[in-house]
TrEMBL record:
Keywords: DNA-binding, Transcription, Transcription regulation
Name of the protein this chain belongs to: Transcriptional regulator
HTH araC/xylS-type domain segment(s): 178-276
Record organism: Bacteroides faecalis
InterPro entries, sorted: Homeodomain-like_sf, HTH_AraC, MarA-like, Znf_C2H2_type
Pfam families: HTH_18
One term of GO molecular function: DNA-binding transcription factor activity
Domain of life: Bacteria
SMART domains xrefs: HTH_ARAC
Keyword flag DNA-binding: yes
């Protein structure tokens, strides 16, 4: 049975309401956002005023009214309002903001620009943004409406901007996501906690968690725990490393602690896990 809106049409209170990913903001002259790593992807549309932005792509760039830029999750970004500035932020997690075929075509066939420049807001895109500003002003909005606006923006960008225009958005989006993944894969074995991993990458713990969830689609602690379990089983089953060495390799304080972890995670002690694998190997032979 299809659910419908009820009562006094208080959409923000509806169970289907979600946090609004499209926000209309006015920054007063002198507003300063200090340099920090972005916790999610966002497109910044400037409707009025001037913003001095600073990032790897837009180093010391003046963003003027009628222009927009994209900053990718994990990138470092700083901003100063040179005048009162009216902005619309569009936040998103995954690059499905763009057509998958178009995204792959641009990544593989269109080179990234040598110099990044803000894109102009077309008339059609301005119509979209003015509509957003007029009726998407609540902190929470209908999930279905947000999905429709998401698709509409993807259409406007895809239809009214060239491959070369979009290359300036898509390449940084892909590069930062890939670089974050590379950092995680290269370093998660070097640390024992989420806090240590965050410090190694120069992130706050909350920022690392948010970016990780956006990129890997699961919480960082659960992901690290799963990799830890995989490593333990691999070493127990397919190596000659002693159980004591495995215990301390994965940061356990004592053999009893390690044994309790294995029993809870796999149903057997480390010794029995290794013995079971040995029996299975004999049966296969």
């Amino acid at each position: 049975m299809t659910s419908t809106c009820q009562g006094d049409w208080d959409c923000p209170s509806c169970p289907k309401a979600v946090d609004n990913a499209i926000t209309h903001v006015i920054h007063q002259r002198g507003y300063h956002l200090s340099a920090r790593k972005c916790e999610e992807n966002f497109i910044l549309f400037l409707l009025k005023g001037e913003l001095l932005v600073n990032s790897q792509e837009y180093a010391g760039t003046m963003l003027n009214a009628g222009e927009f830029i994209l900053q990718a999750v994990g990138s470092k970004f700083e901003m100063l309002a040179m005048s009162d500035a009216e902005c619309i932020y569009y936040r998103f997690n995954q690059p499905e903001l763009f057509c998958n075929f178009r995204f792959d075509h641009i990544m593989n066939e269109i080179p990234a620009p040598l110099i990044f420049s803000p894109l102009k807001i077309t008339t059609e895109l301005r119509y979209f943004l003015e509509g957003v500003k007029s009726y998407l002003c609540e902190p929470k909005i209908c999930r279905e409406l947000l999905t429709l606006k998401h698709k509409e923006l993807a259409f406007v960008l895809g239809y009214y901007y060239s491959d070369y225009d979009l290359a300036g958005l898509i390449h940084p989006l892909s590069n930062y996501t890939n670089s974050f993944q590379y950092f995680i894969i290269q370093n998660y074995k070097k640390v024992k906690t989420v806090e240590e991993l965050a410090k190694l990458g120069g992130y706050t713990v909350s920022t690392l968690r948010r970016i990780f969830t956006n990129v890997f689609h699961e919480p960082v602690y659960e992901w690290m725990l799963a990799r830890r379990k995989e490593g333990i089983l691999e070493d127990l089953n397919n190596s000659k490393i002693s159980i004591s060495e495995i215990c301390y390799k994965y940061g356990f304080e004592s053999l009893p602690h390690f044994s309790n972890f294995c029993k809870k995670s796999f149903g057997l002690s480390p010794r029995n896990l290794r013995h079971q694998q040995h029996k299975d190997d004999i049966i296969e032979k």
